[in-house]
From TrEMBL:
InterPro entries: Fuse-rel_SoxYZ, Ig-like_fold, Ig_E-set, SoxY, SoxY_sf, SoxZ_dom. It comes from the Bacteria. It comes from Paracoccus liaowanqingii. Residues 1-18 form the signal peptide. The lineage of its organism: Bacteria, Pseudomonadati, Pseudomonadota, Alphaproteobacteria, Rhodobacterales. Pfam families: SoxY (PF13501), SoxZ (PF08770). SUPFAM superfamilies: E set domains. This is Quinoprotein dehydrogenase-associated SoxYZ-like carrier. Gene3D superfamilies: Immunoglobulins, SoxY domain. The keyword NADP does not apply. Residues 167-255 form the Sulphur oxidation protein SoxZ domain. Coiled coil: none annotated. Keywords: Signal.
Length: 266
């Protein structure tokens, strides 16, 4: 119970913050834009079609909460790319979304390595693009020490927790998925040996309910340790199946029964 209260507090903090941290001019993004999205002009900003909430100043640069939302009548999204301009590997994650997640309300925690714009570029179902973002004051997130020692990492890696509860309106569900994984960035040091820890992170994640895709993620080093994903979705009564792959070739599969509000797989 304490774990879920902690996760809820971290994730729910983002939308309550005063959002005066608009995107700032970014020479880094000017250089990256064409290689990441293939065009030389920014997609339009439209907070109804897509909005991004993030704290103006991060409490912890290694676990910065980011929430992506749409208005109720917004065009559905097919894919989305999360970018942290100032990170060593700026593309944090790329997502494909299933229809059950529309309109989007999706949260993830990222590492932010320096004062930077955090932006999302989404592709709508008709191929049009839209962008959203915030400027986040944070530093050192990609090299911050891991939260557990190596023995604890080995003992818990790949464990998952899943919870599904009705949303406030009662017509959708809120799913929370936590995965135990250090997501080593390659920029951290072992606190005992002081040697560099090789990069080792989740690079593929797929979440389905039955045959229907909820979301698919391809990620880099910027997703936080022990990643947590919180999202609204339309339940179809089928089990929720999760497949996780990491850069060391490990694969974990779990299936969570649909009829239970909370399942602990540890």
């Amino acid at each position: 119970m304490k774990l879920w209260l902690t996760l809820g507090a971290v994730l729910l903090a983002a939308p309550a913050l005063a959002q005066d941290n608009a995107l700032q001019p970014s020479p880094i993004w000017e250089d990256l834009r064409s290689s990441i999205i293939g065009v030389d002009v920014d997609p339009p900003l439209d907070a109804v079609a897509l909005d991004l909430d993030a704290p103006p100043r991060a409490h912890d640069a290694a676990i910065v909460p980011v929430r992506l939302t749409q208005g109720a009548e917004a065009p559905p999204l097919a894919a989305l790319t999360l970018v942290v301009d100032g990170n060593p590997a700026p593309v944090a994650a790329e997502y494909d979304f299933g229809p059950s997640l529309m309109p989007l309300d999706f949260e993830v925690r990222l590492r932010v390595d320096s004062y930077s714009d955090v932006r999302a570029i989404a592709t709508q179902a008709d191929g049009a693009r839209v962008m959203a973002g915030r400027f986040v004051k944070a530093a050192g997130g990609c090299s911050a020490p891991a939260g557990k020692d190596m023995a604890a990492v080995e003992a818990t890696m790949g464990q998952m927790r899943w919870r599904s509860t009705p949303d406030e309106a009662g017509d959708r569900a809120i799913g929370t998925l936590m995965i135990r994984h250090p997501n080593f960035s390659g920029l951290q040091r072992d606190q005992v040996t002081l040697l560099n820890i090789p990069a080792h992170f989740i690079d593929r994640l797929e979440v389905r309910q039955g045959e229907d895709l909820l979301f698919r993620m391809s990620a880099g080093i910027s997703v936080s340790e022990d990643p947590v994903f919180r999202f609204h979705y339309n339940p179809n009564g089928q089990p929720v199946d999760v497949r996780v792959e990491d850069t060391d070739g490990n694969i974990w599969d779990e299936s969570f029964p649909a009829e239970r509000a909370e399942v602990n797989k540890s």
